[in-house]
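Incident log, support desk, overnight shift.

02:14 A customer reports that sequence design results differ from what the structure should imply. Their input is reproduced verbatim below. On-call engineer (initials T.W.) acknowledged and began investigating.
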């Protein structure tokens, strides 16, 4: 038997997957407030196609989530102070849970995972009135030594004050975000983000260009 690569077929399959990716989230959604507000604004107002890697990772995440979380109560939707949320699941102990599929190594602890994950979990905890949460991560590369992948799960607890502070920050972001949407003005580049977010951001060219224009 002889095989021949068909990259156009792979591209077409990715295009089909990509059409599933934009779920019309209610505005403002908790996740778009946590990450770069400039990117969130662009995704709403002038979206760009996702990269093949982003589409592939999304597909793996959705597939694994469906199978892995089947025995849990899934997707707890709601709205708190005008912010919409959609938590992934309730675990065996009725704790709110977030599931991630990642290329991060299993050797890391949640404190070393992307900052936004913890903010997301704390946002759900506040909105649902819980002081404990579960984070489950399918680390696709394990600890970068076979066998791959590995599933990790962690329980976390946060104080009332910590959750209140997180929520206050979230409400501030909501005001900033909605104001920019209403005025049809892009939130200033490199202002409402974490540095690491720019590395693989599809809007980086736009932000760099604006930065140059403003400097000149
Ligand atoms: S490049 Fe950075 S500042 Fe610009 S949209 Fe992306 S994450 Fe935000």
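02:41 Re-run completed on a clean worker. Output:
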């Amino acid at each position: 038997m002889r095989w021949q690569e068909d990259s156009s077929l792979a591209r077409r399959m990715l295009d089909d997957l990509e059409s599933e990716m934009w779920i019309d989230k209610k505005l403002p959604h908790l996740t778009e407030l946590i990450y770069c507000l400039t990117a969130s604004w662009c995704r709403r107002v002038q979206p760009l196609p996702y990269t093949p890697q982003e589409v592939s990772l999304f597909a793996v995440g959705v597939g694994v989530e469906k199978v892995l979380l089947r025995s849990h109560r899934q997707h707890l939707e709601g709205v708190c102070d005008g912010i919409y949320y959609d938590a992934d699941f309730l675990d065996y102990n009725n704790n709110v849970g977030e599931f991630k599929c990642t290329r991060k190594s299993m050797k890391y602890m949640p404190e070393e995972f992307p900052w936004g994950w913890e903010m997301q979990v704390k946002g759900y905890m506040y909105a649902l009135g819980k002081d404990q949460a579960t984070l489950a991560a399918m680390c696709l590369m394990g600890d970068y030594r076979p066998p791959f992948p590995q599933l990790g799960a962690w329980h976390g607890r946060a104080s009332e004050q910590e959750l209140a502070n997180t929520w206050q920050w979230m409400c501030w972001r909501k005001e900033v975000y909605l104001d920019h949407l209403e005025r049809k003005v892009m939130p200033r580049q490199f202002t409402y983000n974490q540095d690491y977010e720019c590395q693989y951001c599809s809007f980086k060219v736009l932000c760099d260009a604006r930065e140059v224009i403003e400097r000149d």
